[in-house]
Amino acid sequence: xSLNFLVGFFIFITGLCIGSFLNVVILRALSEESxxxxxSKCPKCQTPLKWWHNIPVxxxxxxxxxxxxxxxxxxxxxxxxxxxxxxxxxxxxxxxxYSLFLPFVFIFLSLFIVIAVTDIKECVTFDWHCxxxxxxxxxxxxxxxGNLYQGYTWIFQTSFIASLxxxxxxxxxxxxxxxxxxxxxxxxxxxxxxxxxxxAVGACFGVKYxxxxxxxxxxxxxIIIIPIYFYNLIKKKDYYTFxxxxxxxxxxxxxxxxxxxxxxxxxxxxxxxxxxxxxxLCIMIIKSIKNKKDNEQKADMLKLPFGPAIVSSALLFMFLxx
Length: 322
Ligand SMILES: [Zn+2]
Hints:
Layout: H1 3-30, H2 58-62, H3 77-96, H4 101-122, H5 127-142, H6 159-184, H7 193-205, H8 207-235, H9 239-258, H10 264-291, H11 295-302, H12 307-320
Bound molecules: zinc ion.
């Protein structure tokens, strides 16, 4: 057996254990308990767990997904997060190898998972999760472990300065977006917590990467929102908007696939049709948002936690681009 294989195996097991710890961090953050005390217990019946109930993934399989005491179902979230952490740790070892950047990547990944899961589960972001991520990013870049800006001599392109500017730019873009939403639509287009998440990710990746990361996060968010929007239109029996939306989507897909083979006239006709549908759709969406009186209802139409999108986008950049 080669050394790399052994180290990889060790990192995978460590990832499982860290994933188990992240579950505790998420659970205790949401229930506002300390991480160290009390010892782990069943979230349903509160019975303290024995050590053999706490083995990552394996315990879940042996207990068949049920608490040993009260027999209530244990959420599949626990083994999934353990596995996800282990797989991401192993992947980053395969990508970055034996590097001082690696421990920082582990810290980034762990906080990405915690931030995404608390946001998905309860739509909250905890300030200190973001502060730790930002600190880790600044320290990592101060020592230039990530080599994000290798070869740059311009002072603003040293990793450390780029990290600080990345923090400011990341936070500022989301703050601006929030402000514009208030001004134009009189609604919360995004959570305040997203300012912190975006700033922290900016500190990790620097000013050069935070803008593409955020742009891609918006794209991801739209991809997630489209089926939900579709579903809501059918549920509200708003077939008029639905038809326009469907026409727009179908035309855009056909144009995207066959556009290169079109003759000029068909291309012009397609462009006009897509533009008309697109503009009509925008007007309908803005009207429907403005018509909603109460803020809560406005929120449930479009608002979806944005933190998971930022974090996923950052993850993709880390593995595919950097
Ligand atoms: Zn129980």
